[in-house]
Amino acid sequence: MSFTTFETTRAMRVLRGPGAMGGIGAELDRLGAARAFVLTGRSVATRTPLLERLKAGLGARFAGVHPEIGAHTPMPELVAAMAAAREAGADAVISLGGGSVVDAGKIASACLALGIADAQGLRDYLAAQDGRPIPGMPVQVAVPTTASAAEFTKGAGVLDPEAVHKRSLRNPAIVPDVVVMDPEVVAHTPPFLWLSSAIRSVDHAVEALGGAQANAYTDALADGALRLLFAALPRCHADHGDIAAIGDVQQATWLAGNACTGAQTGLSHGIGYLLGANFGVPHGVCSCITLPHVMAWNGTAGGKADAVLRRVSGLDGPGHGAVDALIRGLDLPRRVRDAVEVTEDQVTGLSAKAMALPHVPINPRVPQDEAELTALLAQMY
After folding, report:
1. Which residue, 28, 94, 221, 381, has fewest beta-carbon neighbours within 10 Å?
2. Any idea of the CA torsion for 211, 215, 220, 221, to the nearest 10 degrees?
3. What's the rounded Cα separation, in Å, for the pair 359 and 164?
4. How sure is the predictor about 1, in pLDDT bands with cuts at 50, 70 and 90?
């Protein structure tokens, strides 16, 4: 008898709805944490009232802040944040921001527990891909301001500038203890960022449907996520202050994040990591570019998603058409050249790195050689 092993993410507590950020202090008390260190980005810290609102809610529990986490979680900034949190004696880490900030909180929490203090120690740990439990981790709270769903996955990425390469950690232990889905927080997120990050969740759901470990559980999560996303995103586009629509997208990220964590992702995610690491394209914009093209290239091999997408979009034809129409309707970029100033040769020059991606052998259609990926990247350009 043959069998497979499936691993869900560990249990977490989710606070959802307007005003949910105000419940963080009580959660820290419940979990016995007294010194909360905040990770965030410069825009959130300086252009919104969110950090000050969070500090006021924490009161004496606030132990410090590192407001310098940039896109794709650059390793130098992450190491600096770890040092500051350790110096502050933090027993809780709160991530306030998008996927890069949440990833920083996940990796920093692991490093604080493991005594990792510098870039080389972090590189060594990531290379080992140690998925064992991590005793003594600080309490971890994620307050996402985008729809990337990093708070619901057991993976996290960090950009190593020396190698121009994004390294990753996959361990169920790094999933946050508490996730705060507050639509009032998102009201301060620029509309373009919110909408593009939500396409990342579309990417999560679609690739979960074709994932190597897909099953009835992950299929149901992905189906529900796409239903919510296709209904709510046009409403968000029409009115960025639509709290109900924001809440629906947040719930969709929850479903999609758990779906892809269990089912695994494919080439759209993998190539997106390359575009981010090499050209600085944000996560969500990467998915706007890669997902329709990878779906079209997969063809009938990725056909499970087609039926779901036809149903949730109301459009006939292959699923990549429905995704492309959604992206067009949200006025988001669809080509690399629309997002960043690079040449076609620079983009197609990533084909060797793309062929080495761990996503290649588990993609619904497996490229046979580098030339196939060169052609795919040329279409994305």
Report:
1. 381
2. -50
3. 18
4. low
Angstrom distance (rounded) from CA 366 to CA 347: 20
Last residue of a domain, one of 152, 184, 216: 184
Residue 229, judged by CB atoms within 10 A of its CB (0-12, 13-18, 19+), counts as: buried
| Same domain, residue pair 218 and 180 | no
Residue type, 51: L
CA-wise closest residue to 296 among 230, 206, 211, 228: 206
Residue 348 Ramachandran class (φ > 0 left, ψ -120 to 50 alpha, else beta): alpha
Whole-model pTM above 0.90? yes
Whether the Cβ atoms of residue 150 and residue 99 lie closer than 8 Å to each other? yes
Q: Report pLDDT digits (tens) over 2-44.
A: 787 777 777 789 999 999 999 999 999 999 999 999 999 999 9
* 215-253 pLDDT per residue, tens: 999 999 999 999 999 999 999 999 999 999 999 999 999
Please tell me whether residues 173 and 210 are part of one structural domain. Answer: no
End of a domain among 161, 184, 207? 184
**64: left (phi > 0), else alpha (psi -120 to 50), else beta?**
left
Q: Which residues contact 127 (CB under 8 A, 6 or more apart)?
A: 167
Domain annotation covers residue 57: yes
| 166 and 245 belong to one structural domain | no
